[in-house]
Design brief:
There is one protein chain. The protein is α/β, with parallel strands linked by helices and 451 residues long. The chain folds into three domains: 200 residues, FAD/NAD(P)-binding domain (3-Layer(bba) Sandwich); 110 residues, FAD/NAD(P)-binding domain; 104 residues, FAD/NAD-linked reductase, C-terminal dimerisation domain (Enolase-like, domain 1, 2-Layer Sandwich). It is 31% helix and 24% strand. It contains 13 helices and 21 strands. Strands 1, 2, 3, 4, 5, 6 and 16 form a seven-stranded mixed beta sheet that branches. The N and C termini lie far apart (58 Å).
Length: 451
């Protein structure tokens, strides 16, 4: 820590990673400042995973009402009110903004509101004011990316969905990643005729092939219209309705077109070039294993480095920054192997470790799979199925991948992630007594390899 500067650490971006790094650094005795131009908590808290999960909860009630009949409940007339869900969500997000502010203030972090940019490796300018810092952390996150075409001004991004003034009756969701798949399920569950368009042959690229195919079948079963190998050529508006023309010559009329086609790092306008910070081909900040940029005292974490765009990953990276700058002991980096994740489509996806293709490329494997109708649906009458898969490395019997599609998949895979991170073998899975009756017990009762 040097008294030649106003701050020991100045963080640009108050998302999950930036907030964690600044709080932990301040608690270690550092003088910390943080700049935020929009809202505290970043994408996840405000226009990402938190409000999206609340919308997923809302979308599930339609099926719950239907399922209740098989259990003797008579559910009367029901009607969805978009304004209630939207505004209640907003109140919760505002509450969380206050929580984040209190966390920073109570830790002793100085909050600066406005746009920050670097003048050099140690100088930050905000609203005409200049500040100096010994170390600078770039944690500015990412923003939705949408391709251009004639009429693209009539589309929206995932950021806009959370504050829609009017709810659509018909929606087109463009994209093949988890954001597109999740919003297709949300809209469908809330009673919207939903069409998911993807330019490739099958969505969720990078996920296990068995999972991708199973989710496709389940989404179609739920009434979502899937259009693969399809791209938008143009959009025209007539009487408030959008006529969407595809490159194959077909067209579709819709109330809303959501482009969920990926995200790009927020590096523009930060003055990174003036400070000498190198960027990669995708506009991401290039860092080493300790999150140092090409400038020794400037660091970067989270979506802006484009390694894994996941909130818990950014938080873990932030913890590394605080420890390495102001803690004691050996420097820490992050092991990106076996990081679990979930997709909150309906049914949910939970996954950790290697896909079958990744594991097979490393050597001989055994694959254990099962699919079944959940116990609940034996009375509800719903056709939804659950899918589970374990991938085992033959050389040492270690479980190297676990994948699930079904209710609460994320909750179940989180527990399995601990076992896989610890190096559990298939024999140890088999020796574990299941909790009956649960879906999760299937993970410890799959005895015969599928292939």
């Amino acid at each position: 820590m040097s008294l030649s500067f106003e701050y020991d650490l100045f963080v640009i971006g108050a998302g999950s990673g930036g907030v964690r790094a600044s709080r932990m650094s301040a608690r270690a005795g550092a003088r910390v400042g943080i700049a935020e131009s929009t809202f505290l908590g970043g994408t996840c808290v405000n226009v990402g995973c938190v409000p999206k999960k609340l919308f997923v909860y809302g979308a599930q009630f339609a099926e719950e009402f239907d399922d209740a009949a098989g259990f003797g409940w008579l559910v009367g007339a029901r009607q969805f009110d978009w304004a209630t869900l939207r505004d209640n969500k907003t109140k919760e997000i505002e509450r969380l903004n206050g929580v984040y502010q209190n966390l920073l203030v109570n830790a002793g972090v100085k909050i600066h509101r406005g746009v920050a940019r670097l003048l050099d490796a140690h100088t930050i300018e905000m609203e005409g004011q200049r500040m100096t810092a010994d170390n600078i952390l770039i944690a500015t996150g990412s923003s939705p990316y949408a391709p251009s075409f004639p009429g693209d001004e009539h589309t929206i991004t995932s950021t806009d969905v959370f504050y829609l003034p009017n709810f659509p009756r018909h929606a087109i969701i463009v994209g093949g990643g988890y954001i597109a798949v999740e919003f297709a399920g949300i809209f469908n569950g809330l009673g919207v005729e939903s069409h998911l368009l993807y330019r490739g042959p099958l969505f969720l690229r990078g996920f296990d092939e068995s999972v991708r195919g199973f989710v496709k079948d389940e989404l179609e079963r739920k009434g979502i219209h899937l259009h693969f190998n399809t791209e938008i050529a143009s959009i025209e508006v007539n009487s408030g309705r959008k006529r969407v023309h595809f490159k194959d010559g077909q067209s579709l009329e819709s109330d809303l077109v959501l482009q969920a086609t990926g995200r790009r790092p927020n590096t523009s306008g930060l003055g990174l070039d003036a400070a000498g910070v190198h960027l990669g081909d995708r506009g991401e900040v290039v860092v080493d294993e300790f999150f140092r940029t090409s400038v020794p005292n400037i660091y970067a974490i989270g979506d802006v480095i484009d390694r894994m765009q996941l909130t818990p990953v950014a938080i873990a990276e932030g913890m590394c920054i605080a420890h390495n700058l102001f803690g004691s002991g050996p420097k820490r980096s992050l092991d990106y192997r076996d990081i679990p994740t979930a997709v909150f489509c309906q049914p949910n996806i939970g996954t950790v470790g290697l896909t079958e293709a990744q594991a097979a490329a490393k050597g001989p494997i055994s694959v254990f799979e099962t699919s079944f109708r959940a116990m609940k649906h034996t009375l509800s009458g719903r056709g939804e199925r659950t899918f589970m898969k374990l991938i085992v490395r033959k050389a040492d019997d270690r479980v190297v991948g676990a994948h699930m599609v079904g209710p609460e998949a994320g909750e179940i895979i989180q527990g399995l992630a601990v076992a896989i991170k610890a190096g559990a073998t298939k024999a140890q899975f088999d020796a574990t007594v299941g909790i009956h009756p649960t879906a999760a017990e299937e993970f410890v009762t799959m005895r015969e390899a599928t292939r």
